[in-house]
Specification:
Elements lengths: L5 E3 L2 E3 L8 H9 L5 H7 L5 H11 L23 H6 L3 H38 L1
Helix pairs in contact: 2-3
């Protein structure tokens, strides 16, 4: 049984996950010299284990500055999505870019299919003549 599960009215429930806020992340990244145990005082509600786990996933010393989107220059880069982060795009601009790519792929596929059908039609005409 999960040791972190809590008993509620005789039933065990999984603990809920608290998402990291932007303020918490800023505190976390502006104090890389502090240990996870020392950070517990600055981040109430976070355990030392949660802080060290977040540092492992995000990086402790070489974390890049929070940069703005390369397209709109208004919102921060969508760091949770690796593709968007590599492209330096915020969530909205990344989704717009993906929609454009899907539309272009559909247009290309339609063109390729029409060329294939035309080629097959010409081959069939040449065989009958």
């Amino acid at each position: 049984m999960n040791p972190k599960a809590k008993a509620q009215n005789g039933a065990f429930t999984k603990p809920t996950y608290n998402y990291w806020t932007e303020d918490e992340l800023n505190i976390l990244f502006t104090h890389p010299e502090l240990s996870a145990k020392a950070m517990v005082e600055l981040l109430p509600g976070r355990t030392a284990e949660a802080i060290s786990c977040k540092r492992k996933s995000e990086g402790r010393w070489n974390h890049p500055e929070r940069v703005l989107c390369a397209v709109c220059h208004q919102r921060p880069v969508w760091a949770e999505c690796t593709k968007a982060a590599k492209m330096l795009l915020c969530k909205g601009c990344y989704l717009d870019e993906q929609e454009k790519r899907v539309a272009e792929a559909n247009r290309h596929n339609a063109l390729r299919q029409s060329e294939f059908k035309l080629r097959k039609r010409l081959e069939k005409q040449n065989k009958t003549v």
